[in-house]
Design goal:
- The complex is a heterodimer of chains A (385) and B (139).
- Chain A is α/β, with parallel strands linked by helices and 385 residues long.
- In chain A, strand 9 and strand 10 form a beta hairpin.
- In chain A, helix 7 runs parallel beside helix 11.
- The longest helix of chain A has 60 residues.
- Chain A starts with a helix and ends in a 15-residue tail after the last strand.
- Chain B has 139 residues and is an alpha/beta fold.
- Chain B contains five helices and five strands.
- In chain B, helix 2 runs parallel beside helix 3.
- The longest helix of chain B is centred in the first third of the chain and has 13 residues.
- The chains are: A alpha/beta (385), B alpha/beta (139).
- Chains A and B meet through helix 6 and helix 7 of A and helix 1 of B.
Chain lengths: 385, 139
Amino acid sequence: MGEVEEARAVSETVVVIDDDDAMRLACRQILAKSGYEVEEFADGSRGLDGIGAVRPGLVVVDLKMPGVSGLDVIGRIVRIDPTITIVVITGYATIGTAVDAMKAGAYDFLPKPFSPDELRLIVRRGFERRRLQLASRQCEMDRELQRRRFVTFVTHQLKTPLVAVHQYLDVLRRMGDGAEAAARRGEWLDRCLARTEELQHLIEDWLMLARLEGGTLVRQRVPLDLKAVLPEMLAGYQQLADARQVALAYELPDESYPIRGDRTCVGVLFDNLIANAIQYNRPGGTVRVHGARAPGEVVIDVVDTGRGIPADALPFVFDEFYRGHQPEGRRIEGTGLGLPICRLVATAMGGTIDVESTDGAGSTFRVRLPLLEDGTDGAGPGGEP
Amino acid sequence: MTAGAHILIVDDDPDFADALRTMLTGAGYEVTVAYDGRAGVAAARRARPDAILVDVMMEERTAGFFTVQELRRAPETARTPIVVISALYAQVEEFQVPPDPRWAGHDAFLPKPVDSDLLLARLATLLTRPAPVPGAPEE
């Protein structure tokens, strides 16, 4: 970690290790002219000490030196800092020695005699490669950190309902059979059940997300007509909508909305959108599913008249576990994974999903899926599961 | 000695807070609940509870620690005993929270779910400890 930390400011220092005084001087002059800081050492062991102290970005090392050999020097530089680029020079330029040097960790090989331009070119390329290497290392570390944070966060999300249930049961047991326990027991057991259910949904969604990300879910692609699928799905939500006093409506004016996709995944996609539209709605509100055909695509809008999403929250609604501001003391149901799942499903089917919203006036989720062109709509409505 | 003391719970999970509140009420404490850090600080400054329980992993992730810091900065709660609770006990380091409680300014740390006996014991200790002498160096 520390080593990459330091390397962020990429060192432009070159260390030259060569027992030939004239060669060291020549290298110093050539490279200094190109703007590099140059440190030179006359043998391997002093060179290695110097590298430890100077931490150069690049080392030019003669392969044939008395004392510590060039090959050994290469090996030890790699141990000091594997990101240092090593260029080997030698008068004994054979394929064998070159291969040995590269195997030991050298980046490139420069046979004597060489021109100033050859040296400059190889050093410039060496630094360029190092910069790229460091950048990709940094990326990898950022990703790793993000992944670890995410695992921690998921763990916390999974533990939260479990903790609530545990706490209820623990307190119930402590209360024994008193009047207070009798008064609380029913309500608390209901809450325990609700939280257990929440945990189950969370685990199911989490699994779904992992499978979608692993690409193992959207395998089956059959012709589907959303004109048949969507009203059927909406009908399944009638009871929930009634309970929330929300009206369901659809407008599917075109003759058909043929797509190719996995029936289960299409179900998951619109299930999440419709359920959200009902849940985030207000009594007396409506959920409207609207279809349109555009060149090459089917466009489905799920429009609600809920409280909408604040502009500053919009960019994050497809992020895992993102939830907008919640009213005090009230938890919005749901796993926080629904919209990320929607986005993965839409993407896996070659489509997109976007959201538009006016704070306080509702949201429109727009799904675009590739249109299945005429002549291929062999399967009936709904297709095969 | 500690009976009737006022405890403020700051936690964004109403179920957890409800269970804990009932347990503490049963043990003779007077309990109020705030469901996020901001409301918690406001309630604490207003009501001046005898001890505060703060969850450090509320929706805004590490927000609980900012809550602790804010409570410590506020003159009304600068010396109020604070017990931090978190379900992330085992992974605390990931969030760069040093295990040394003095760093964040809290007086005790308990993992979630909370062991009721342990919490009651901690509270009893914290509520009966002698008030620190102003200006005296922390040990």
